[in-house]
Protein 1
Amino acid sequence: MPYAPGGGADTLARGIGQKLTEMQGYTVVIDNRGGGGTILGSDLAAKARPDGHTIILVASTHAVVSSLHRNLPYDPINDFSPVVRVASAPNILALHPSVPASSVKELVELAKARPGQLVYASSGNGGGSHLAMELLKSMARMDLIHVPYKGTGPAVIDLLSGQAKLMFGGMIGTLSHVKSARLKALAVSSAKRSPVAPDLPTVAESGFSGYEAATWYGVLAPARTPVAIVAKLNTEIIATLNHPDLRQRMAG
């Protein structure tokens, strides 16, 4: 797990791991190695023995990391064998309740009135939450301060405390805090509204036509993992994803 505990990818990994243990009878250990914009954990997975005993759950960051870092210690494509895509979800534009804005338009106006003063958190440099906010910054011409963390979990902790004022948080790691009113949400980053939060408008609806920055999650194995093992993992993980208990937990 190339992220710290508590974020969307971590929650997915733990849900899948628990179901694999229940359904297949073997123990799944979640090894959180956050840091470096997922580079640390991804490098460990890329260099692991290709026997099916070490796999990694990545997010869409994996697809863009090579364009953000000149000298990666691994090849994001050639050093991995794709196993299965497990989920996709929008990010939520969430604010600390102290921020006096109730819409994306009001947030942009506030940011322009206070250039270089509002702090936004992200799951790490080059992560989905970072790039989602940078896209909005570019389109809205806002000046915000970026503070990267080792995952969504620790970023949300500082957002809840008010040390950070806003972030694009993963749906899985953020929505529960919105429902409990510890955070307020302005919009979702997907092209269409989410069925999980249908009352939240999209950023595109909120005055920024064409905006879209959803996140996907997938499982990879080290390159040269035997095809039969990859196929077995694919079948077993899909079985967990189709299990009603896991689907209900993720929807909740």
Protein 2
Amino acid sequence: MVKVAIIGATGYTAAESILILLRHEQTQITYLTALPEECGHIAEIFPALKGRLDLPVEPVDLNKLSKTADVALCCLPHKVSMQFVPQLLSAGVKVVDFSADYRIHDAALYEQVYQVEHTDKENLSRAVFGLPELFRQRITGADLVANPGCYPTAASLALAPLVKENLIDPADIVVNAVSGVSGAGRKATLPFHFPEMNENLFAYAVGTHRHMPEIEQIVTDFTQTPVQVLFQPHVAGMDRGILESIYCRPTAETSPEKLMQLFKSFYADEPFIRILHEPPKTKNVSYTNFCAIFPTVAKGKIVVFSAIDNLIKGAAGQAVQNMNLICQFPETMGLL
């Protein structure tokens, strides 16, 4: 049994991770940590866990963690994870990090996007980007995996086959995305207060969202073709889910049938990719680790629709998928 610690155990992604690990055949949750003001019994923080997990959430003690865990799921915000990861790695604990701290290879770009100095450049250079469908060989056996952002997961999986086959202009890509409110985290803020958010839909971070360079990096790394993406996120009055509509300029005439054949072939052996014959719905991927994709042609453009559960394939499920690869378990364990 692999022993797993969760750092930042009181957030939504941590709760989802716990639920997945409780049905995982080869893991045992041994340690939960959070800020002192957020500590308590996990079943009091998340009543759905009553009778299922009997553990306290404690202030972080890295010495104790290193003695009780083989793998840590680091469910911390950006700027915070890199304060803990070096010590975890030094103690021999493998890490799947949910933050952005190890996603962007270029430290200067990270500092520009997140407006903070990167304090762990040594481990940044060894971190592996954790999108299994594109980087599985790199992830297997790694000791530090940067779990992707939710928006980049849906976008990159939709774009990779097209860029790889040179079917689209890599400098003319528009990603229009809508996310559920849980993407903003568990801490209450005015824009996401129920009377503000219910029956509402709005755009934010116009042309400046932090996930834009991440999408560009992923697709470029996988295809070796530099891409430029205009990424525009929105938030909708729903709990969970992401739907992305992606518009691309084709490099040559194509057809919906050829695109369907390409995507089915490209993802033929991927257990968590579903290629559909109609646009996906967020409800059909909720509480799953699936990414549902529908490619087609409209008015001379290639249009791809991509849907995931932002808390599962966009965070906790993908983290467990990465953990399975790190530990060389069957990749689907705990997720199907």
Protein 3
Amino acid sequence: MNAINEPQHKDYLARVARSALPRWNIDANAELRLISLSENAMFLVSHGPLKWVLRVHRLDYHSINGVRSELAWMQALRADAGVETPRALPGQDGERVQHVCAAPFPEPRMVVLFDFIAGVQPEPDNLLDAFDQLGSITARMHLHSRQWQRPAFFERQVWDYEGAFGEQPIWGHWRAGFARQMPGLEVVERADALMRQRLQRYGKGHERFGLIHTDFRLANLLVDEGEAKVLDFDDCGFGWYLYDVASSTTFIENHADIDSIVAAWVNGYRQVATLDAEDIAEIPTLMMFRRLIILGWAGSHPGTDLAREMGDAYSAETVELAEKYLSGRLLGACQ
């Protein structure tokens, strides 16, 4: 998309989205509003009292089987674990993933339409209750992941050290996102080395590593009349189960009350499933891992609103987090 500027890019994505609407027998003149643009473009579609959310996939991120796999797990969570997730709707041809083209590019984009889910995000001024709820829902998803018989076509990304920072990092290496003029690079490098060593020692046994959400922030949880609903499985894949708590702390790792916030998550999790001391001891390592993954994302997505908002401050705060991690002060109770 380097050939067109950002407004033109958004206009192109809107044309793809509008061209896709008839695939679901939705009026092509329905109201269409871009609500987020990151890996994919998400549009709110409205026609009279009806609402949907339409996702236009970026190129070369997931294969069609990868998208089908995501949708299969979401469907299985609803059916088997009682975890409410958005429903992907089949088009008129029965396929949930449609391929749609729009000028000026000939490459078809994958497009998926979801039912609109009502609800509100948990209040940020009550993080302890929210993280307790996050922990319990995550445990239900992990229990399901461990026993679910995945379909033969199933394929998703692997969020291990190689996937994050190897020769072909999923979101880009963290060094590409570290502000060049910012001091403290050597501190982050030492934290990276310790993190890698501990993850290797922790291992990828069946009880520790499997299919996870990977982006389970409060922004991806809705509550409607007491019922919690889980959104945005686009980055779900294989990783350490406790990476999900690390992803839940994205952007709040340096919060003054982070120990209590993570303890609330652990408490909620333990209401549903077990966690042993060795698992809990690696939560700081996985928080450091998540932090560097997001730093890599910012480096590979410099034109996004979020990356611009993060700016140099995110690198400075990463140095601060790395210092805590190296000294054992990141979640001191876990060390």
Protein 4
Amino acid sequence: MKFVAYERAKQGTGASRRLRITGKTPGIVYGGDTQPQLIEIDHNALWHALKKEAFHASVLEMELGGTVSKVLLRDVQYHPYKQLVQHVDFQRVDARTRMTVKVPLHFKGEEESEAVKLHHNLVNHVMTEVQISILPADLPEFIEVDLSGLANAGTVKVSDLKLPKGAKVILHGKPNPVVASAVAPVVEEEAPAAAAPAAEPAKGKKKK
């Protein structure tokens, strides 16, 4: 994906506030061999771009001052209650340097699995993204998780994922976390019907 940014001369809270009033979002680009650079982006264009998954999880082409460079979205700050992007951070990408990035998981095939078709399991997507170390050229927009082979009460773990070329999963000390799991539905047992109260014997009429 490609977007256009412009150089930003002024920084500070007041300058950023004035920039937002004019429909622009302040940002910064850092990394590489150059100093961090202040930028501004058209807010409406940025707002629509942020709704696309690829903008968050792929190498982007940033056009700045007539030069196109490769960057990665690193941070977005939203207004607490307004539909407003307050600030955005990008990192320059070096084609020869591995980077660490979170990639979304896309699940498929659970309806065809034994767990769902035969045993009516409920499938929990325990993880929605995975952090990997990878070269920029090999970075995927997402990693597909095939659940068609999920067995009754079975699990899919990180070691079961088909990773792109050269990718290494960063587990942060967890040995092999679960990505998705099948859980048998809870069957509520019917409470036994309460016994009907015994009828009281009819009382005889009193003699006059």
